[in-house]
């Protein structure tokens, strides 16, 4: 609750508090995204050139990560092992340490399971003395082979697949593994790093792409891009490509199932830091600076800036996203201040405040539904329906093009 302390105004209003949910609430997840991007761009990444590397795995292997989420973290560690070995091979030194920030994404352009990794890695590595050695582009063919071999070895060690499966997949003309390094960020491009981290840590679900919810509860969800692609059929096993499209129509329960699959287990990390950018490495360097300075400062500048940013997170982040100051009084334009935080289970306090503001609506509790009438209604609905004979709706039809307005009007 915020209020205006100015005597002649005294305006008060309620502001929704964060639910602090990951991957489900677009608003709260966006706050996490902005805080992470600011931390990476301003406190973590050094002013050297960086590159994004995207690594994917075949559909045949993705299903295991859907039911065993612990495999996603091991997949990130597998990517770090491959990239570190490739950097050291290209520099010809085993004593250098690269850095890596790995973001685990489990969503694609539509609501289907698509685990892959977005990696931010500096274009080089550091020596023990802190000297940075620059590195050219990766050899993608060599890196893809190393990535494929490492994933197969890891899946075999986890006993998720058999050697016969690996032998069969190696015979495929298209392996399903891919490595991309098309995004390059020059040295000192903190704004570019911030935008990139916001992209790789974005919420899997977007309200702007939820086109329509029909009267029957069907959900029409649109792709990120207008171009049609052969996305997997949500009613299948996810192994085969479906009809090329840029939207998805889901029944209510199917939509909830697809939507909730992106919720990570409690305590799991969706972004991980390795090498020169790991917490251990950064902590050791900070201790070395303190020892070298002969006197420990009260607080390091980076830590102090992060602490100040955390305390100002609520108002600052809303202003960054919506370009509106939430503490600006809508009546007089003065600066408002937070007077209280109201959280559950303060039911009595919430009721008293809402009654004082004239916003409380008392409702008597609803009784349980009449099961007898519900059974009679279902019997009347399906009494003349035959489940053996196919109906016209079950017959297959050829695909025809219709205008988007006509298509949406049919739901």
Write up what this structure looks like:
Strand 1 and strand 2 form a beta hairpin. The chain has 13 helices and 13 strands. The strands form four sheets. It has a five-stranded antiparallel sheet, with helices on both faces. Strands 2-1-13 form a three-stranded antiparallel sheet, with no helix packed on it. Strands 9-10-11 form a three-stranded antiparallel sheet. The protein folds into three domains: 2-17 and 297-356, no CATH class; 26-204 and 272-283, no CATH class; 377-409, no CATH class. It is an alpha+beta fold. The chain has helices at 26-44, 59-67, 70-91, 140-157, 163-170, 190-200, 252-260, 279-293, 301-311, 313-322, 347-356, 371-382, 404-409, and strands at 2-3, 12-13, 50-56, 99-107, 113-122, 124-126, 132-134, 178-185, 210-213, 219-222, 247-250, 271-275, 337-338. The protein is globular, with a radius of gyration of 27 Å.
């Amino acid at each position: 609750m915020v209020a205006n302390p100015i005597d002649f105004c005294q305006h008060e209003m309620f502001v929704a508090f964060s639910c602090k949910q990951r991957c489900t609430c677009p608003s709260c997840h966006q706050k996490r995204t902005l805080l992470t991007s600011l931390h990476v761009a301003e406190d973590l990444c050094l002013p050297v050139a960086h590159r994004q590397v995207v690594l994917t795995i075949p559909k045949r292997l993705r299903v295991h990560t859907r039911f065993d989420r612990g495999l996603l973290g091991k997949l990130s560690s597998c990517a770090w092992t491959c990239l570190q070995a490739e950097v050291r091979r290209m520099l010809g030194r085993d004593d250098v340490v690269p850095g890596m920030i790995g973001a685990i994404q489990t969503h694609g352009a539509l609501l289907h399971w698509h685990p892959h990794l977005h990696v931010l890695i500096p274009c080089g590595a550091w020596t023990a003395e802190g000297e940075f050695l620059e590195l050219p582009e990766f050899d993608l063919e060599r890196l893809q082979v190393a990535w494929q071999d490492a994933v197969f070895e890891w899946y075999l060690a986890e006993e998720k697949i058999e050697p016969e499966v690996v032998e069969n997949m190696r015979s495929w003309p298209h392996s399903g593994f891919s490595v991309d390094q098309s995004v390059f960020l020059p040295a000192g491009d903190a704004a570019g790093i911030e935008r990139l981290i916001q992209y790789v840590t974005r919420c899997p679900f977007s309200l702007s792409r939820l086109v329509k919810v029909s009267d029957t509860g069907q959900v029409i969800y649109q792709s990120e891009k207008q171009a049609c692609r052969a996305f997997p059929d949500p009613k299948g096993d996810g192994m085969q490509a479906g009809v090329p499209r840029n939207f998805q129509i889901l029944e209510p329960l199917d939509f909830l199932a697809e939507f909730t699959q992106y919720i990570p287990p409690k305590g799991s990390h969706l972004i991980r830091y390795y090498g020169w950018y790991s917490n251990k490495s950064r902590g050791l360097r900070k201790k070395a600076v303190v020892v070298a300075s002969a006197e420990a400062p009260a607080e390091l500048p980076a830590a102090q800036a992060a602490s100040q940013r955390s305390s100002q997170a609520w108002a600052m982040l809303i202003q960054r996203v919506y370009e509106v100051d939430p503490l600006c009084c809508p009546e007089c334009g003065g600066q408002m201040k937070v007077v209280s935080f109201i959280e559950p289970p303060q039911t009595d306090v919430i009721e008293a405040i809402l009654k004082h503001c004239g916003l409380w609506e008392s409702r008597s509790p609803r009784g349980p539904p009449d099961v007898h009438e519900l059974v009679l209604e279902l019997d009347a609905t399906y009494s003349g329906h035959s489940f053996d004979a196919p109906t016209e709706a079950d017959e297959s039809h050829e695909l025809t093009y219709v205008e988007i307005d006509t298509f949406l009007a049919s739901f």
